User: Fold DAPK2 kinase from Oceanites oceanicus.
Amino acid sequence: SGHFGVVKRCRERSTGTLYAAKFVKTQRCRGSRLGLERAQVEREVTILRQLDHPNIVRLHDLFSSRAEMVLIQELISGGELFDFIAEKEMLSEEEAIEFLGQLLRGVEYLHARRIAHFDLKPENIMLQEKNVPKPRIKIIDFGLAQHLENGVTFKSLCGTPQYIAPEVINYEPLSSATDMWSIGVITYILLSGLSPFQGETDAETLSNVVAGAYEFEEHCFSQTSEMAKDFIQQLLVKEPGDRMTATECLVHPWVKPLSRKQATKRSRSSINMKNFRKFNARRKWKVKSVLALRWGGGTQQRAPLCPQRRCESDQEEEGSHPAPLLRQRSSSCS
Assistant:
């Protein structure tokens, strides 16, 4: 559930198949504080309709009314990846890489289609099912995703402070490399249970990200292989063009060992489970901090800090009956 929506389990009458219905409230007039801009939700739908990959959530159907859009997506019942890992007694780097590899393959697929997710974080990395021999990763929530066009500069002030890249904070052009920074942060947390840039406040966290200063604290990385550290170091690079791509990550020696010696080192190294469980517990209770933003045109602008006045139609909506939902299904959807 989020500020403007909720997800419910639903069943398709004709087949009996279970799906997840994502109900999103949309603005009924420009400038309203109630709901998301309809164009933002429509962009998410347009992107989801282009995607067909085992590690990315699938859109099945779409219904909409004047004040609401309902995205019918495949049901993902395994919960968050980090919750699943926190329940384990121990996890080797080799086992962690099996999950990370799936994430990288999903991101590689996106980037090959010039689509950037721009909100990669633990909450958006799910498991399709939990109680199976090899759980499958699913990347969800494409609300901030963008189709990047050649010759068009895209800037944004969106995201969760500890996972966003320096170029987001500096309001500089974004690219697929912005996602790779987030994967670097996620990997750092996965191995150590520490967040590389987390400060006492969001402002301090953002300052740490811009500085790009982090270290591998010995008491948290004592069980971590040097290859794993090198993998992170090639992602947490301030200059976007110097970061590894998803494709390069998949052939990095830590992910794809070049020798038996490298494979052995990886299998003997493990993640810091004690710290990881502590981090995951704090994460679950922490109120999400999202930068205020307003969508518009080819870029995103800061939302005004002054309160916005509700428009008349929004006030009418609160006491009115919901409008009937109309099906908006693409012929390419099945």
Remarks:
- Residues 166 and 210 are 5 Å apart (CA to CA).
- The first strand starts at residue 5 and ends at 11.
- The domain at 81-285 is CATH 1.10.510.10 (Transferase(Phosphotransferase); domain 1).
- The chain is about 35% helix and 15% strand.
